[in-house]
Amino acid sequence: MAEAHTLAVAEIVHETADACSVVFSVPPESAEAFRYSPGQFLTLRVPSDRTGSVARCYSLSSAPHEGRVQVTVKRTADGYGSNWICDNLRAGSEVEVLPPAGVFTPSSFDEDLLLLAGGSGITPVMSILKTALGKGTGQVVLVYANRGQDSVIFAGELASLAARHPDRLVVIHWLETVQGIPSVAQLGALLRPHAGHEAFLCGPAPFMAAAKQALTELGAPRKRVHLERFISLGGNPFEVATAAAPSAEDTGSAGLTVELDGDTHSLDWPRQRKLLDFLLDSGIDAPFSCRAGQCSACACRITSGEVKMLNNEILDSEDLADGIVLACQSLPLTDDVSVTYE
Q: Taking every annotated instance into account, which residue ranges of this chain make up the domain 2Fe-2S ferredoxin-type (predicted)?
């Protein structure tokens, strides 16, 4: 498993009646482990009377250049993790946390960006927005949908950013109490002037589906439309998993070529070893978080050959058609497989 770090809570910021931000104090010895990219998330260990603990992923809403590590958590009706965090964490509390993970981040902050958020989907989008304004040069358009004015997280901060960057930031609020649930046609009309921007979407599934369809109908290239989905983890990456010994018939291997961080590795991949497990055991620092097929942190692209995934709760049919797979769930099907981490 990834090395868990015990972090103290420096501050709790109450953003709305049902959302709070948790600011962590990162000790010097953990500073390198908690360097993050805008749009990434942290995995927190939440105590549980039934299972000992559960793991929950929450997006970082701070920006790296701010010098803080902050996640924002919104209560959900049946959300065990979100309710426990909002009810129990205080300044001085300690939490076990896995290092940052995730790939929902722009490759360049000098690009013009179109950011679409619904509800608590603003959390990774806020990190991207602040980084773009603080470190990039591109134009930023934010479309932020909420049920009503009282549920707008970061309302004051967004107003302040818009006032400070009138030439670069446009914030468009969509309130369901005023305008109803946004349709594909309405979003298409709203987004048409900005369809050439690189787009990042996060929020409830119906909102993201409508926004994605609107952008598709406007001709936005799929590779410039990025989605982040929130899924509660079924597994617990804080618990050590014991790998089963391979049986006699499982001793074959496939040739594997991996491109990661500018390096190319050539290996013999045992057919019954998941790709991520094998890479980590081989000393290759491949990205991951949940190890259960429920997040996109370990996503990579198959450039030749074929694999099968044992579980996939995050990638859609278009991702699969593009050769994107989850390394934590992938086994080789062909004798040779080539993989790249982009």
A: 254-342
Topology given in CATH for the domain delimited by 5-101: Elongation Factor Tu (Ef-tu); domain 3 (2.40.30)
- Return per-residue pLDDT of the chain as tens, 342 residues: 468 999 999 999 999 999 999 999 999 999 999 999 999 999 999 998 776 788 899 999 999 999 999 999 999 888 889 999 999 999 999 999 999 988 899 999 999 999 999 999 999 999 999 999 999 999 999 999 999 999 999 999 999 999 999 999 999 999 999 999 999 999 999 999 999 999 999 999 999 999 999 999 999 998 899 998 776 565 677 775 544 444 444 568 999 999 998 999 999 999 999 999 999 999 999 988 778 787 888 999 999 999 999 988 888 877 888 899 999 999 999 999 999 997
Angle at CA 298, nearest 5°, toward 50 and 110?
120
Cβ neighbors of 300 (< 8 A, separation 6 or more) are 275, 286, 324, 325, 327, 339, 340, 341, 342
- The CATH label, of 3.40.190.10, 3.40.50.80, 3.40.50.1000, 3.40.640.10, for the domain at 113-228 is 3.40.50.80
Q: CA–CA separation, 236 vs 296, rounded Å?
A: 16
Options 3.65.10.10, 3.40.190.10, 3.10.20.30, 3.40.640.10; which CATH number does 250-340 get?
3.10.20.30
- The count of C-alpha atoms lying within 13 angstroms of the C-alpha of 51, restricted to the half-sphere facing its C-beta, is 12
First to last CA, the chain: 23
User: For the chain, what's the residue count?
Assistant: 342
89-102 pLDDT tens trace: 999 999 999 999 88
Q: Are 98 and 35 in contact (CB under 8 A)?
A: no
Whole-angstrom distance, CA of residue 110 vs CA of residue 336: 38
| Residues near 205 by beta carbon (within 8 Å), at least 6 away in sequence | 229
Report how far residue 278's alpha carbon sits from residue 268's, in angstroms, rounded to the nearest whole number.
10
Read off φ and ψ for residue 314, nearest 5 degrees.
Answer: -130, -35
